[in-house]
Amino acid sequence: MTRFNLSSRLIALAITSVFVAGPVFAKGNDDNNGKDKDKQAEKYEKKYQKQAQKDEKRERKEIEQGKYFNDQQRTYVREYYISNYGPGKKCPPGLAKKGNGCMPPGQVRTWVVGQAIPRNVTMYSVPQQVIVQLPPAPYGYRYARVGGDIVLVQQQNNLIVDIIQGLLGG
Q1: pLDDT (tens digit, 9 = 90+) per residue, 27-55?
Q2: What is the rounded CA–CA span in Å between residue 161 and residue 52?
Q3: Which stretches of the chain score pLDDT less than 70?
Q4: What's residue 9's pLDDT?
Q5: Helix/strand/coil (H, E, C) string of the chain?
Q6: For burial by CB atoms within 10 Å, which of 1, 92, 138, 162 has the most?
Q7: For every residue of 34-50, which 3-state class applies, written as one string?
Q8: Measured CA distances, 45 to 35, 38, 39, 40 (Å)
Q9: Which pLDDT score is estimated for 166?
Q10: Are 100 and 168 in contact, with CB atoms under 8 Å apart?
Q11: CB neighbours of 137 closer than 8 A, spacing ≥ 6?
Q12: In sequence order, what are the residues at sequence separation of 6 or more whose Cβ sits closer than 8 angstroms to the Cβ of residue 161?
């Protein structure tokens, strides 16, 4: 019985020493934990600021309809298309003389700023030589060629914001 009491006392003493010594060890780490927490808080603050800057750049800005392209850009784009796709160049002979951007007669349409392009209409990519001469498309917008026109459309709903009509002088 004495042995049992002795072992019980030793266990109780060990448990008590852990509870007594715990705050001492914790106190020694408070200074480092405080510094680590400050560094971690700074790290997260910097990360938050970077994300906020990215979000600000990516924020979709509303563009005034029909006012995005200037006359110089319109002239350059038309000259590019006339020199590369003008009469007889890269276009079937029957469509080349129509001057409508090589579009078959049933697909020729006149697009208007503020109109949405239907999903069944094919939008083609704009050549890189043309894109570098235009201002960068804002976040949420893209350039596309539809028939004989270059359009700036909202990606969300294919709404035409601005247009360069008559690429081949049509």
Answers
A1: 555 555 566 777 787 887 787 777 766 66
A2: 27
A3: 1-4, 21-35, 52-62, 86-109, 168-170
A4: 80
A5: CHHHHHHHHHHHHHHHHHHHHHHHHHHHHHHHHHHHHHHHHHHHHHHHHHHHHHHHHHCCCCCCCCCCCCHHHHHHHHHHHHHHHCCCCCCCHHHHCCCCCCCCHHHCCCCCCCCECCCCCCCECCCHHHHCCCCCCCCCEEEEEECCEEEEEECCCCEEEEEECCCCCC
A6: 162
A7: HHHHHHHHHHHHHHHHH
A8: 15, 10, 10, 9
A9: 77
A10: yes
A11: 143, 152
A12: 63, 65, 66, 68, 113, 141, 151, 152, 153, 154
* Percentage with pLDDT > 90 across the chain: 6
Residue 163 contacts residue 149 (beta carbons within 8 Å): yes
Q: Which residue has the tokens 């106190």?
A: 27
Please report the pLDDT score of residue 33 as a whole number: 57
Q: What is the pTM of this model?
A: 0.54
